[in-house]
Amino acid sequence: MADFLTDIETIRARARQEIEKGPVTDAYGADLERVLQVLNEALATEIVCTLRYKRHYYTASGLYSEPVAAEFLEHAAEEQQHADKIARRIVQLGGEPDFHPDTLTQRAHAGYDASADLVEMIREDLVAERVAIAAYTEIAQWLGDGDPTTRRVFEDLLAQEEEHADDLRGLLERIPQSGRA
């Protein structure tokens, strides 16, 4: 069995120090304030994505809208779950999740969209998913071993965002050219 880098008595003593920090110990290797800022940006992204998908769900119309709208609703629910997961991590790290509506779109990586055309809705959602994929990949790499728990949160989100992008690409492929007008 490998030896600990720090003896157990030292670890126990450190655990008693600054107990109010909860899970953030001396072993935490990331810039906590920057991590909280990045998490709040991701939170804004997920909230904006939830709102965009909800709008698209309610306003989708046309011959092919029923299955597309169902996909929008499913994605909206999953984006809300992402927001909840991020908010919980922010609180766990001792931060405050920023739900302020006046600045959501300014802090979000992905934009809001009010397209009326079904194909444009799908395209804009696919763009937003690709933005989230790129951002979350970069964030996970940036976090590295400095905060493995937050990195895993982003890796989990990333996997689902990739599924969303694949779903949306599939929808675009299934709508015939005549249904795009």
Overview of the molecule:
The protein is mainly alpha-helical and 181 residues long. The chain has a single domain, classed as Ferritin. It is built from six helices and no strands. Helix 3 runs antiparallel to helix 6. The longest helix is centred in the N-terminal third of the chain and has 28 residues. The protein is elongated. The termini are far apart.
Short description:
This protein is mainly alpha-helical.
* CATH topology description: Ferritin
Helix content: 55-70%
Strand proportion: under 5%
The major sheet is characterized as:
none
| Residue runs with pLDDT of under 50 for 5 or more positions | none
H/E element sequence:
HHHHHH
Bulk shape: elongated
InterPro entries: Bacterioferritin, Dps-like, Ferritin-like, Ferritin-like_diiron, Ferritin-like_SF, Ferritin_DPS_dom
Cofactor: heme b
Protein name: Bacterioferritin
Organism: Streptomyces siderophoricus
List the defining traits of the structure above.
Ferritin-like, Bacterioferritin, 181 residues, iron, iron storage, elongated, Ferritin, mainly alpha, 67% helix, Ferritin-like_diiron, 0% strand
Task: Write the topology of this structure.
Blueprint lengths: L7 H9 L15 H28 L5 H28 L11 H4 L10 H26 L4 H27 L7
Helix pairs in contact: 2-3, 2-5, 3-6, 5-6
